[in-house]
Specification:
190 residues; five-stranded parallel beta sheet; alpha/beta
């Protein structure tokens, strides 16, 4: 992982798809068995997490309804749109799994347990996160033997009123993200 790579937006080549009037970048011919959505910010309403919830719903439809695991701040918005957002494929159980306000690395610990419980592979993950966060998410995943592709909005949007100052604007994000990557590299997370 290069510490200065993809700090503001994910630059790897992806297909552009349009779903319900929203444009996303992803690998259109991918067949994930899990959608993994990570929050971006703390605000309960009027935040980027609503965009992530819409992306989750659109990805779930586009990729034929795979198991969907979301962090709690995104879950709050999913409740507004649909109640059946997690399907545990083979045994046809529906449940709600909420990942609390925890670190990205902790979310992967929970994801690992869920995949083991459902006999799902770690190599078919569809990652949904903010375009500036997705690179770190995927690198943490790779370090832990999770592999997949992103599903991100075409445009990078910064939630101007979020409680977390570092996600409000790109120039707040870059120094924090750079320091976070150094920390993660030193601690062996990346």
């Amino acid at each position: 992982m290069k510490l200065l790579e993809n700090l503001l937006d994910y630059k790897e080549p992806l297909d552009l798809i349009n779903i319900t009037g929203r444009e996303y970048r992803t690998k259109s011919d991918y067949h994930p068995n899990v959608i993994f959505t990570l929050a971006f910010g703390e605000n309960e309403k009027s935040s980027y997490n609503e965009n992530l919830a819409l992306a989750t719903i659109n990805a779930k439809t586009y990729f034929d309804n795979p198991l969907t695991i979301v962090q709690s701040n995104v879950f709050n918005f999913l409740q507004d749109y649909t109640s059946d957002y997690i399907s545990i494929g083979q045994n046809n159980l529906s449940t709600r799994l909420i990942l609390s306000k925890i670190s990205t690395s902790d979310c992967f610990n929970l994801l690992d347990n869920i995949l083991d419980e459902n006999n799902l592979n770690k190599d078919k993950i569809l990652y949904i996160a903010h375009p500036a966060h997705i690179y770190r998410v995927m690198e943490i995943g790779k370090k832990r033997s999770f592999f997949g592709f992103p599903f991100i909005e075409k445009e990078v949007v910064w939630p101007k009123d979020d409680e977390q100052l570092w996600i409000r604007k790109a120039y707040f994000w870059v120094p924090r993200e750079f320091l976070c990557r150094i920390h993660h590299k030193v601690k062996g997370i990346l």
